[in-house]
Amino acid sequence: MKAACEKSQAVCTSLKKEKKTVAPPKLFDLTALQREANRLYGFTAKQTLDYAQALYEKRLLTYPRTDSKYITSDMQDSTKELITGLCSLLPFMRDVKLQADLTRVCDNSKVTDHHAILPTAEFLKTGFSSLTDSETKLMTLVCAKLLCAAAAPYEYEAVTAVISCGGYTFTAKGKTTLCEGWREIEKLSRAASEEQDEDAEPETVLPPLAEGQTFDNPAAEISECYTQPPKAYTEDTLLSAMENAGKEETPEDAERKGLGTTATRAGIIEKLISAGFAERKGKKLIPTKDGYNLAAILPDSLTSPQLTAEWGTRLTGIAKGSDSPADFMRGIEEMTAGLVKTYSAISEDKAKLFTPQREAIGTCPRCGAAVYEGKKNFYCSDRACSFVMWKNDRFFEQRKKAFTKAIAAALLKDGKVKIKGMYSTKTGKTFDGVVLLADTGGKYVNFRVEQNRK
C-alpha cells in the first residue's frame, strides 16, 4: 500500500462541509460538579461535596445537594446581575463581551426543591480572598459554568474529505471554528486556573482543500493501531454510570432513575472503598477481589437498578401522600423474608471465594513448598513437611528481638539476616550480628549467630 500510494497521484474526490452548532452547557447539579472536579482536579466525589458544603455555609454558594441544572423564571434578573458582577470580578472575563441569555437554563418544571448550583451575591462582595486553594478551584468552576451557560453557542464547520490514491480510498476529517461562543470562556477560565482536561480530544484542522484537487508525490506512512479494552472507572465516569444505570429498563414515568441520588452517590462510593470492595489507584477506582466476589454471589434482584428506581418512586409517592408507608414497609419485609429464606446459606464453592488470600513469605528449605505466616509461627504449606519457625522461639526472646515477618523472609531467601541491637545475656550489652538459619531437618529449627561485636 505504501509503495503504491507514493508512486501515485492523490486526488480529492469528495469534499463535504457542514455547519454545526454546540449549545452552551447546562448549569451544575451536584453530580455534574463532582464529575468535572474529579476530571480536572482529581477531587473525589466526597471532597467536592465537602468543599461545596463549606462554601454554602460561608454563604458564597447556593445549596449544593441539588439534582437540578436549571433556574426558575423569577431568578432571571438576579442571575443576570450576578453574571455582570462576575464579569467584573474575574480577571479572565475583563476583555470578553458577554450578552447573557438564560433561556436554555430557565425552566420552572425542572426545578423541584432546589435550583442549580450558583455563586451568591455575597461572593461578589468577598471574592476569593478567604478561600482555600481547593475552595477557590471549585468556586471558579461554578462561576465559569454560569458564564458559559449564558454565552452564545459554539459554531464550527465540519469538513470531510475523501482522497483517492494508488487504488485506495482514504477519509480525512477536521473542523474550522466559526464562532468560539461559550468555548472562549471555558478556555480562558481553564488557562487562568492552569486546568488541563486529560480527556479532551485534540482538534484536527485540515488545510484548504477543493474537490478535484491533486497532490503529486504524496508522502505515505502506515501505522498499526490496536483496539483498547474499556478503561477503569474514575469517579467522573462512575458517577455518570450510576446516574444512568438501568435507564433503558426503567419506566419513563419513574420519579428517580439510576443508582443513588445526587446527595448519596459520594457516600456510596466511599462505603465501597472503606468496606474493601474497591480501591483508589490514582484517579482510577479498581474493584478488589472481595468486590468481584460480592457481585458474583448477590441475587439479581439486589443488583438491579430497577429496584432503586421502584423504591425511589414509591418514596416520592409517600412524600406526596399518594402511596402508603405501611404498604411500602410491608413489601420490603416480605422481600427481605424471601431473600433470607432463599439465600440463608451460600454454596461451598461461593463461600470459598471469600477465603482470605495468603501471601507466601518464602520457600521451605526442606521441601520447596510455600511458607506462610500464621498467628504464632511461619509454617510450611505442605502438611507432610514438619518445617516451622515459631515467633516465640527462645533464640530471639533471649536476644530481646521480635521474630518478624521480614526476618523470616530474609532467612528463607538467603539463609541469613543481619540484625542490629541484639541483647547479650553474658555482657548485658547489645550487638549487631548475622543470624544464620541452621536447620538440621529435625522437629525444631535452630538458629545461630555470627556476631560482629563493636
Mean pLDDT: 89
Helix content: 25-40%
Structural class: alpha+beta
The CATH topology of the largest domain, please? Topoisomerase I, domain 4
User: How many E-type strands?
Assistant: 14
How many structural domains does the protein architecture include?
Answer: 4
Topology as a string of helices (H) and strands (E): HEHHHHHEEHEEHHEEHHHHHEEEEHHEEE
**Known CATH architecture of the largest domain:** Orthogonal Bundle
Radius of gyration, CA atoms, in whole angstroms: 33 Å
What's the level 1 CATH class of the largest domain?
Mainly Alpha
Description:
One of its GO terms (biological process) is DNA recombination. This protein has 454 residues and is of the alpha+beta class. The protein has 4 domains: 2-22 and 155-215, Distorted Sandwich (Topoisomerase I, domain 3), CATH 2.70.20.10; 30-152, Topoisomerase I, domain 4 (Orthogonal Bundle); 233-352, Topoisomerase I, domain 2, CATH 1.10.460; 362-452, no CATH class. Helix content is 37%, strand content 19%. It has 16 helices and 14 strands. It has helices spanning 2-6, 30-41, 45-57, 76-89, 121-126, 133-149, 182-193, 235-244, 265-274, 289-297, 300-303, 305-320, 325-342, 348-352, 394-398, 405-414; strands spanning 10-22, 154-165, 168-179, 214-215, 233-234, 278-281, 284-287, 362-363, 370-373, 377-380, 388-390, 416-423, 430-438, 446-452. It has a 4-stranded antiparallel sheet with strand order 3-2-1-4, with no helix packed on it. Helix 2 crosses helix 6. It is extended and about 90 Å long. It starts with a helix and ends with a strand. The model has no long low-confidence stretch (mean pLDDT 89).
